[in-house]
Amino acid sequence: MITLRPAGTRGHFDFGWLDTHHTFSFGEYFDADHMQFHALRVINEDRVQAAKGFGTHGHRDMEILTWVLSGTLEHRDSLGTHGVIRPGEAQVMSAGTGIRHSEFNPSADEPVHFLQIWILPERQGLVPRYDQVAFPEAGLQNQLRLIASPDGAEGSVKLFQDVKVFVARLDAGRAVQGSIPSGRAGFLQVARGSISLNGAAMNAGDSARIEGEPSITVVAGVEAGSPAEILFFDLA
């Protein structure tokens, strides 16, 4: 069964410096029907204006994955980490027993567009940590590329949860297929462009819960002639 959620039904706030959409309940947005899906707790689609950002704040007991779609995002945290995240780079933080961090758009004139994803950890009280991996463009193009996993397979960032995260950037009309092992579920987020998921039409910002399906076929739309980008979650 595939349950679609259109982009326009998400929580939405525009603070001027930040335009944000929430796929699941977050902050001031509460939706009892969309609290989480398996271990997937948050998918926020954020656009931060130039020279703006999130001040230092704290988290604990959460796996936090960031995927930049365009622009750059500067990161600092209480572990002493300082880095810049660009498109094609996955960043993960295990908040664990507690971590403080900030994110800032260092550009003087361009916004940054990114997804921030929270995954419930396999256990509480983990030691806080940070990791960041860059994936070559060719490895993301027209295939499902593993970017996060519980064992760091294929050069992916490590998650302390039985979740695999894949990204695909699809040229118009191109297709990818993925399998969902028995007893597991899938979740698909369209980051940009238009696609069909097992024949169901989806557009940027739409998401889908996938249960009881042994496989998925994703085909990028051809109408606009522009590429699509998806994130696919394989969930215990």
From TrEMBL:
Q: Which InterPro entries match?
A: Pirin (IPR012093), Pirin_N_dom (IPR003829), Quercetinase_C (IPR041602), RmlC-like_jellyroll (IPR014710), RmlC_Cupin_sf (IPR011051)
* Quercetin 2,3-dioxygenase C-terminal cupin domain segment(s): 146-235
In what residue span(s) does the Pirin N-terminal domain sit?
15-119
| Pfam entry (one) | Pirin_C_2
Write out the similarity annotation.
Belongs to the pirin family.
Kindly provide the name given to this protein in its UniProt entry: Quercetin 2,3-dioxygenase
Per the UniProt record, the lineage of the source organism begins with: Bacteria, Pseudomonadati, Acidobacteriota, Holophagae, Holophagales
